[in-house]
Amino acid sequence: MTTAELPVIAAVDGSWHSFEALAWAARDAVGRGLPLTIVHVRPLDRHTSQEAQRREAEELLAESVGRVAQVAPALHTSTLAPLDFPTAALTALSEHASMLVLGSRGLGGFRSLLIGSNSLATASMARCPVIVVHSSAADEDEAETREAFTDIVVGVAADESSEAVLDFAFEAATSRPGARLRIVHGWTMFSSMLSGGPVFDRDAAADAAARTLAELTAGRREKYPQIDVVQEPVHGSASHTLVTASETAALTVIGRRKGGEDLGFGLSPVAQTTLTHAVGPVAVVPC
After folding, report:
1. Is the dihedral of CA 275, 279, 285, 287 positive or negative?
2. Is 269 helix (H, G, I), strand (E, B) or coil?
């Protein structure tokens, strides 16, 4: 099976957050022409028999398949119910997935937490892009407004490889007819100094940031002529810029730095802040 044929994996645990993520995953799989695998990880629990867990898993997965049928009736789906720790199971499965889709919090999450520990850990360690779907507002009109958003927002940095991040963002825009791709590069005088650019001349630093952004995206306009691309070098905090942009985005795409995965420290401060506070779905791409 080639990378282009690997399934979209959606994790469910019976929470409303996971069902929202499941619906998002089903729609995205249809747009990309990929199959969908629905996964429910059975936790290691000595107080519940494996037979009881198996029955509960079968019921939940059957309900999930039914929900997918309502959203995407022609979509090919399969199910898995591994017995393991959630993060460990999903990280292992990520090696054979085009992407993992998770809810921002599960059944065990505290209402005060913006993102659950399993979602954060999986986004930090998975081998494929991870999409964390933040729960939409309870207001139905506001939820419908969010579904109407078409912008794909991607954050790129000058001091790390952005190739994989940009590739994912362009492919995401390609799978959504009419989508506009906003490529955001947040810069400050301090970041300009760290990258060897102008230190005291703000106009020169702004020009350098614009050139950096143009260099990072060179060649992709020719490869994806159908996509409306907007380049946005923005003076200010990168994480603040991305969180603000996420408010009107169908998807916000960020990169995960190399290194630290074995210790669970695979997210940079910008990525973790964006993932935690962004509105709507966020894709974390290994880079």
Report:
1. negative
2. helix
